[in-house]
Amino acid sequence: MPMHWSVPQHADVLEQLAAAVARRPGAVVTGPDGVGKSTLVHQAAAQYTEAHPGVALRIVTGTPTERAVPFGAFAHLVDVAEMGKPAALLRAARDSLRAEADDLMIVDDANQLDPLSATLVYQLALAGETRMIVTAREEDAPAPVRALWTDALLRRIDVAQAAAVTSVEDAEAFLTHAPAEVRAVLDHLSQQEPIPREDLVTLTSEEAVRDAERLGVIEVLPRGGAQMVFTTHPLFALRSAAALDPDARRRIRGALAQVAAARAGDHPSDRLRVADLAVDSDRPPPVDQTISDAGAALRLGDLTLAERLARSALARSDALGARLVLAHALSWQGRGREAAELLAAVDQNGLSDGEVMAWALPRAANQFWMLGEPEQATAFLRNTRSRLSEPSAQTTIDALTATFSMNAGAPERALRIAETVLSSSTADDTAVAWAASAAALSSARMGRFADVDPYARRASAVEHPGLLRFTVGLAECTALVMAGDLDGAEAVAQRHTDFAELQQPGRAIGEVLLANVALAKGDSATAAQLLGPAAAALERTGYSWGPLALMLSATAKAQLGDLPGAAKMLARAESRHGTKSALFAPELGIARAWRLAAGRDQHGAVAAARQAAGMAERSGQAAIAVQCWYEAVRFGDPRATDALERLAPTVDAALTDRALAEARGVQRDR
């Protein structure tokens, strides 16, 4: 018998939706499956389009299988053909979604969106220029979707569970007695949803698709000029997937991959959808193709898909490319030990210079940050370089050496190496990214502010690995803070946070940038609020951002008078600080100073601030030394004037002038 859904009526919710959609940016409707969220949203959309003839209505529907594919649910709407950096892809996607003021976008089942799609929805809501209604289950919504209501970007309307809603048991009972041909339709949808109706007919039969639609378990909806088949409830796909035996599952995925490949265009999601289906099918693609697809997923920031594809390739062939992609994916997830074991198993005999370089870079970076062995990583790079003869490979090794030197607290040496790399005609994109980002941050902390923007632009113009954009962001924020442009610094930090795909650790690092600016603005409460979850997330990784987050958190808590909290954060910062975060030794000193000040030890605070300034000056970080002496001024240090007068010719900045003026005031008042 047909599956009749008992959808409760929510007249009050419909009224709230109508009011919300009347003005941008709209609303997010939350509630469990089966309460009528989709029905309500489509009713509201129908009312709105009837009242506004000629407006464009665009609909996006998340599904469990599309969640595995970057931009999967948005493929029919966004025009992005190049496998570029996530930030560039998001910009291209937003450009392709430009709408008139009265147009409406529906995003249904947003909890099933992939990370890039979810971030796109968040950015559209943040901009406030797109009228939208989003539906989601709260309990499993990804961070960008949850942020729609936690950041108060969209009005939240919650739909409560009603007694009349069709139960899970009802749906399971229907599936148990469903005709075999209808089960075949659902079996295919359990592996890919949606499916073009034409393809589903080819894979099953016209009669099967009609019967499934008549029985109420599927619906056919227009998407991007095609008729797409969806299940009417997520349970149908989930239960069908659970019941499939492994051989049948692989057979279905192989057939789906074949028809999807015949349709695939230039959209990144088309190619990766085929790859996702094919690797776990009875028709796996060639290893080289799988490695290429894994690399594409990695560049898009989809570490889960990159790992899955790379593991599939490695299971079929001990190819270096598969190991490298998998190692990157593991390391960027903070799984450094696994990445190290994978890279240690590489047989270097017979490798070309380019292959040795491609292997050495992730191994050294993983050893430096994730394993916390910076000295060994630096020695490994030095030894590797001595074995190379190709100038381009040597240049790339030098670029990573510059980054290591900067993090180890030697920005002057880092800048010298980086400048040599950037002037080399053999520097590839990876070398330029490492060198330019290191040069930008080193210049900012040394007080060479005029050089920051050119280096930042050069780093941003090339493809780069991992989280280097945040190094550039910290450089830009440092220069703007020193210039006294705190609003500009906050805007830069916010931009980097928004482009972090709201995935960890990117989101947490972006929040460290924001918190750093908040401290400069004197907003300790906001800084502490940001740094709590950020420090917790980064502590689990090996990045030097982790100790920095703890240092800043200790400072913020001390400024708020939370002495126990500050002491706890400071102890954690000290235990995790080392060579890999030596660049931030002055920040650790300032955290100590504020903890002493919170304990009413003014003399101790002044002494600690002086020590921090001394560390900054000895390591060539003149701009940071100014910041440290400014903190000493706040503690009433009469000796800060002489130090700031000595630094002023080197660090020509508004903050230097301000610190010096206040220091002279302290000296006069004594």
Q: What structural class is derived from the secondary structure elements?
A: mainly alpha
Level-2 CATH architecture of the largest domain: Alpha Horseshoe
Any idea what the shape is?
globular
Strand content is 5-15%
Which fold name corresponds to the CATH topology of the largest domain?
Serine Threonine Protein Phosphatase 5, Tetratricopeptide repeat
Ranges with pLDDT <50 over ≥5 residues?
A: none
What is the first-to-last residue Cα distance? 91 Å
**CATH-defined superfamily of the largest domain:** Tetratricopeptide repeat domain
Q: What helical percentage do the residues reach?
A: 55-70%
Strand order of the largest sheet: 2-3-4-1-5
E-strand count: 8
Instruction: Output the CATH class name of the largest domain.
Output: Mainly Alpha
Tell me the quaternary state: single chain
Q: Can you count the helices?
A: 33
What can be said about the biggest beta sheet?
A: 5 strands, parallel
Mean pLDDT over all positions:
89
Number of domains: 4
- Over the alpha carbons, how many angstroms does the gyration radius reach? 28 Å
